[in-house]
Amino acid sequence: MQLNLIDESAYAQTMTKLVRPALAGCRDEGWFNPAQAEREAGLTPRGGGLHYLCYDATKFDYEREDGATAVFRGAIVISHGFTEFAEKYDELVWYFLKSGYSVCVMDHRGHGKSARDVDNPSLVWIDDWHRYVVDLAGFARTIGQQYAAGEPINLFCHSMGGGIGAATLEQYPSLFDRAVLSCPMIAPQTGMPMWLTRALVDVLCACGMGRHRVFGQKDFDGVLDLGPYQLSSEPRERWYHQLRCNTREYQTYCASFEWVHQAMRMNRAILKSSACAEIETPILLFQAGHDIWVRNKPQNVFVNRVIDGGGQARLVHIADSEHEIFSMPNAVFGPYLEQVLAFFSAPMIVASEE
Predict the structure, then answer these.
(1) pTM assigned to the model
(2) Residue 196: Cβ within 10 Å count
């Protein structure tokens, strides 16, 4: 279907007066308790709920928004990126709802309004990367399936959320019907060789520095730095920044050494050929030509190993995009969104039995 993208010249006004009121009319807010899922996976629950926002496509249709389809297509679970939060995806949720999908977005542990294990609101820390995966799977199997209502349940991931998503597809191969990995963190960009990063963070964490902020990063100070977003849509970036300024829980901004340590461990696990061969969910992976946050080569390796293992995976390289493709100007974002929606709505290919 053809979607009319928000006019960037009136972006904040449209989000304030049209998009957010419509989303509020079909939104449910809650807290998912991951304890049972974590215990079943052999993890010790750390306590606290994981905040989520869910949007009901049926209620959205009642709003009679222009361009909304009357066809219910199932649900999309969104796995957000590092230092992000559910509300950052309001615009994308709007388009998914218009296309007939209910949407479920959970703040990962240590992000947004979810439970966190450090006092500094700017700092992201996790004790074990498996916790991200188990939490996402538990959320999708319960809340996500509820909103799918017997129709397909799909996964949309970005950056860190894409690394979590890839690992989830490996460990829970029958959970999702389709998955879009947008610039997934198969491996983070650390500014140094991977082997050196691993060695350094291993030593620092062993010396008790795991909860310390990574060198060179800083706490959130409210200043908008558009330096890393030269190609991105400035109205979108300013909107995200204002959301962060307005809500203290959205001010996660920097990594701890333990988070980097766990990201390195997740990277190794994801790229194991045996793990890639477990994937049954068809994957569409988007890669940005100007990505300074995650490495592109490991994404290529991941896709090739999924295919070699008998899975379905396709890589789309967008040469003129930065890391957040959904934050690019409409000229880039539009074709990207069309491919995402076409992938989710394409007829399922069922293997014949011989």
Answers:
(1) 0.96
(2) 11
101 forms beta bridges with 74
Q: How distant, in Å, are the alpha carbons of 26, 125, 273 from that of 50?
A: 20, 15, 32
pLDDT digits (tens, 9 = 90+) for 4-48: 999 999 999 999 999 999 999 999 999 999 999 999 999 999 999
- Strand-pair partners of 78: 105, 156
Long-range contacts of residues 190-194, Cβ cutoff 8 Å, at least 24 apart: 190/260, 194/264, 194/267
For residue 71, give the amino acid letter: V
Burial status of residue 316 (CB atoms within 10 A of its CB: 0-12, 13-18, 19 or more):
middle
Structure tokens at 315: 């890589």
The two three-digit tokens of residue 128, written as one number? 């074990």
> DSSP alpha helices (H): ranges in the chain?
11-14, 20-24, 35-40, 57-62, 90-98, 129-139, 145-148, 160-171, 194-206, 234-246, 257-270, 273-276, 296-308, 330-345
Instruction: Write out the two tokens for 60.
Output: 């959205």
CATH class of 8-345: alpha beta
Distances (CA, A) of 169 to 83, 154, 201, 216, 300: 22, 11, 27, 33, 17
Give the total residue count for the chain.
Answer: 354
At residue 319's C-alpha, the angle toward residues 315 and 324, to 5°, is: 80
320 — phi, psi (to 5°)?
Answer: -100, 25
* 29 contacts 53 by C-beta, under 8 angstroms: yes
pLDDT tens by residue, 278-302: 999 999 999 999 999 999 999 999 9
DSSP 140: I
Compute the 3-state secondary structure of the chain and give helix, strand, coil in percent, each to the nearest 5: 45, 15, 40
Structure tokens given for 70: 């009357």
